Amino acid sequence: MADGINSLMREFGIDKSPIREVMETTMSLKQQGYTDFWDFSIGNPEVPTPPEINESIREILDVYNSVDLHGYTPNDGWEATRRAIADDLNDRFDANADASDLILTAGAAGALTSSIAALTTPGEEVIVLTPYFPEYRLYIQAWSCRCVPVPTIAGTFQIDVDAVRDAIGPRTRMVIVNTPNNPTGAIYSEASLRALGDMLRAEGKRLDKTIYLLSDEPYREIVYDGAKNPWVCGCYENTIMCYSYSKSLSLAGERVGYVYVPKAVHRHDEVLEALHGAQRAVNTITGSLIQRVIERCVKARVPIEEYAARREIIYNGLTEIGYDVVKPEGAFYLWLRALEPDDAAFAERATKERIYMVYSGDFGCPGYERLSYSSVSRERLAESLSAFQNLWDSYGGYTW
Length: 400
Ligand code: PLP
What we know:
Blueprint: H1 7-14, H2 18-31, E1 38-39, H3 51-63, H4 66-70, H5 79-93, E2 102-105, H6 107-119, E3 125-130, H7 135-141, E4 146-151, H8 161-167, E5 172-178, H9 190-207, E6 212-216, E7 239-244, E8 257-260, H10 268-282, H11 288-297, H12 305-321, E9 333-337, H13 343-350, E10 355-356, E11 358-359, E12 368-372, H14 378-395
Helix pairs in contact: 3-11, 5-11, 6-10, 12-14
The structure holds pyridoxal-5'-phosphate.
Pyridoxal-5'-phosphate binds near residues 107, 246 and 257.
Enzyme class: transferase
EC number: 2.6.1.-
Family: Belongs to the class-I pyridoxal-phosphate-dependent aminotransferase family.
């Protein structure tokens, strides 16, 4: 009997993704009062929000009346907030952005969802680079599009431009890139992004269509050793940028980010109109109060030294034991090659040592584990190394 329940949404709802599975296990352990384990599952930013955030919340309470603070905002967000962000992009990247080129959203998730809704039609294909943030698949399939995974270069996890070219066909509408990357911590080189842009331009010409590059940048400011994340919009004219304050300001629960459409994007005004429409239809608008806060705090940042110190402890410790891990250049994840090819079995065996990490099936790149070091203190990270040593010893090192 047809019961009207959307089977795809139901599948998303009941799907036990590895991230959810591990999170549910560790949450239940915590609820039962256990603390003696290492939870590497969640990318919840633990470094406190910069003091300016709470100070401006207090200040704002006295500045605005109830309606201006808690009432509806325009669908694309307060103009003053968009102007402050545009000015900041112009200062830092010479972006030539206006407030009207921006739409405020509920985090990067909202920005990605609105962009995919606005720029695809059912049946089109969206290319993602593996390993990829697993939620992309949902954001794509929700609009009846096909998620097409394309591997990055083995070992470095940089963009394989030829492989992306091979995956492009008449149905391709978009490629999603994420740098600094979740889960590998890689920063895509500017040269590779430019080469990708050149290729997309040529393929667009050949197929007589616009292929968009959706640049997902929630970790843009979380970079180490003075590394610079390339300005992706400068590498290809048809780039739409999705940004979030979840990580750079540790505001994940406030749900605030934006979509930026540079003036160079083909049919710029119509793209923005479609995004405005998506914003109405999908309603990924963010709250009024937090928009006022962002207006005042666009230059604020969490101290990334804390993440950098954690990265040193866990990366150095694991490589000394012998684990195969790529040193993260940004974000706060470590991508570790499992000691056996079955990543789920390896993750399960690690729990015997009280280590909880996410196996890589959902990231489209088997044989790995993702460790988030954002929610584990330096002290606890150092303590985890003896557990990782036990795990290593139990296998006698790599079996493959
Ligand atoms: N994109 C990537 C690569 C992420 O890692 C995340 C969150 O972890 C998101 C998007 C969604 O971020 P937000 O909290 O801003 O919606």
